[in-house]
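Collaborator request, handled under Task 6.
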Amino acid sequence: KKVSKRQTPVQEEHKRENLKIPTWITVSMSDLELDDVHVSDGSSKAKADQRNDSRTINVKDEKDDSIRRSIFNSNPSSIDGSPEPKQKVEGQPILTRNDRDLEKGDPRELDESGKPRPYPDGNLEPDVQYISFKENDPDDPFQWTKFKKCLITYVSVGMTLVVSFANSGYAVAEEGIMEAFGVSKTVSILGITLFVIGFAIAPLILAPLSEVYGRSPIYYVSFGIFTIFIIPTALAPNLETLFIARFIMGCSASTAATMVGGTLADMWHAEQRGFYMSIYASTAFVGTALGPIISGPVAYHLGWRWIFWVQLIFSGIVFVLLCIFLRETRGSVILSKRARGIREKTGNSKVFAPGDDERKSIPVLIKVSLTRPVHFLTKEPIVISFTLWLTFVWCLLYLSLVAIPLVLVKLYNFNVQQVGLGFIGVLIGSVVATLLNPIQEFLYRRSQERNLGIPKPEARLYSSCVGTLLWTGGIFMFGWTSHPSIPYYVPIAASGIYIAGMFQIYLATFNYLADAYKSYAASALSAQGFVRNIFGAVFPLFSTTIFENLGFQWGSSVLGFIALVLSIIPFGLIYYGPTIRAKSKFAKQSCVDPKVPTTQKQVEGAPVKPKDAWLDRGSLPK
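C-alpha cells returned to the collaborator:
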C-alpha cells in the first residue's frame, strides 16, 4: 500500500532534497535469514500490490544510492506501522514460518561454517518480545557437556539398533510361522512388508509434530507403543493379529529410524556431527545383522515365539534408559518452555519464543510434509537420482533377509540356528564400513580446505564411488558363488562386501542431500525415504519367485546389472552436481563462490555484480 498521508523520515529527508524517484522498490523480509533483496521495475507494481505480506514504497530516482540506504536502514515499522514483511530472494522460493524445514536440527539458521546464528534481537511482530539463547547458555543443547551429548546420542541410536533388530529378526521366525499357521513363504513375508510400510507412512505425520512439540514426547510415546505391541506378536493366535501388530510396530518404530538424525543435529555442530552420524547409520545395518544372528539360536532352542520375547526384553531395557537419560534437544521447544515460565512469573503476556507461532499452524506443517516431497520427486533431478539409487539399495537390503536364508537352506542344508549365524558376513561388512568412514571425513575436510573453507556437497560422495562398486561386485559374487561345490562361507563373505558398499551409499546420500538442500533437507530426505521404504517393503515378496525362475546365478546377475547402471550416479554428480544445483531453486542456496566473501552468496556460474553488493544483509557502501 502507498504511503500518502503520513510523512515518514524517508520522505521528509528526500522532500528537503527535492528528489524525484520514478521506480517501485519492493522489499520483503523473510523470517529466515536470507541474503539478497529483489529490486523490480515498475512492471512489478501490480504484483506487489496483490501481496498481503509485502509493502511498496513509492520512491524516485533509482540512481541515488542515498535513497536506497535510507530505505534499507530504516525501521520497517516506522514507514507504515505494518509488521516486518518477508524478504523475497530472486531465484528462490518465498519462505514463511509454515514452510520451515520439517526436520531441521536447530531452529536457528546456520552460517557458512555450520554454526547456528543467534536469533534476531528485533521483534518479529509488533509489541512482542522474542527470547533467544544467551552465549554459553546451559539450556542450549549445543553448549551441553560432551558427556551429556554422548549419553543422549548413544541412547537415541540404541532405539535405532533395537528397531532394526526387531525388523530383521522376523526373517528367522518365518519358517515357524509357516508351520504354525499353514501359510506359504510369500504370505509369511508380509510381516516384514507391513512393518516397513509403517516405516514409510508414519514419519509424514510424526516429523512435523516433533518440530513443534519436541522430540522427547514423540520418542516416549512411539517407542512405548512399539515395546507394548511386541507382546501381541509373541502371543498371536492367528495371522491377522500378528500382521496388525507388526504394522503398528513399524509405524511407532519409524521415529527411531527417521528422527534420530534430527536429534544429533540438535546438539552437534557440523564439523563434529559426521562421526556420530556414521554411528547412527551403522546401527541400522548392524541391527539388521544382529536380528538373525541372535534370533537363530533362540528359535532353534526355544521356538519362534521366543524371538519376539527377546525383542521385548531388549526394547524394554532401551525404553527404561530412554526415560532416564533422554532430554529434550529441540532448541525452539526449550525456549518455548522458558518463555512460558517468564510469562507465568512476570505476568508479561508479550514474551514468546520464535517457535511458538508454529504451534498455530500444525495442519499447514503436515500439509507441507505431505506435498513438498512430491515436488522434489518430480522436479529435482538430484533427488530423483538419489531416490532411484538408494531405493534399489534398500530393495536389495530387504531382499537379503530372504535370499541369504534361501541359499543356506536349499544349497547347504542349514538349520534355523545356522541360518541365523550366516548373517555374520552382514555384521562384519557393516562394522568394517563404519571403521573406514573416517577416511571419507578426511577427504571431505581436505576438499573444504581447497575450496577456501567452503564445503562442497559433492565431497560427500567420494566413499560412495568405491561403495557402489563394492555393492555391485558383491551382488555378482554372491550369485555366482551360491553353488553346492563352493564353500558356504564364500557367499557369506560376498554378502559382507555388498553390505559394506550399501552403507557407504546410504551415508553419502544422507549427507549430500543435507548439504545440498540445507533448510529443505528434511523434505528431500523425506521424499527419498518414503519411496525407498515402500519399494523395500514390497520387493521381498517377489524374491523367492526371482530365484526360483532364474536361479541364484542369473537372478543375482539381473540385479547386479541394474546396480551397475545406477553406479554412474555418484561419478556423474561429482562432475555435474554444481551445475545441476545451480539450476535448482531449492538447492541453489548451497552454490557459493569461494572467491566471493562469505557474506555474499552467489550462484555458481553467475557473474558477480559489485554494484549489488550493498544489498547483501543490508550492508551499504560508505
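The cover message to the collaborator said: "Residues 146-181 form the longest helix (36 residues). Residues 1-125, 593-622 have pLDDT under 50 and may be disordered. Please let us know whether this matches your experimental observations."
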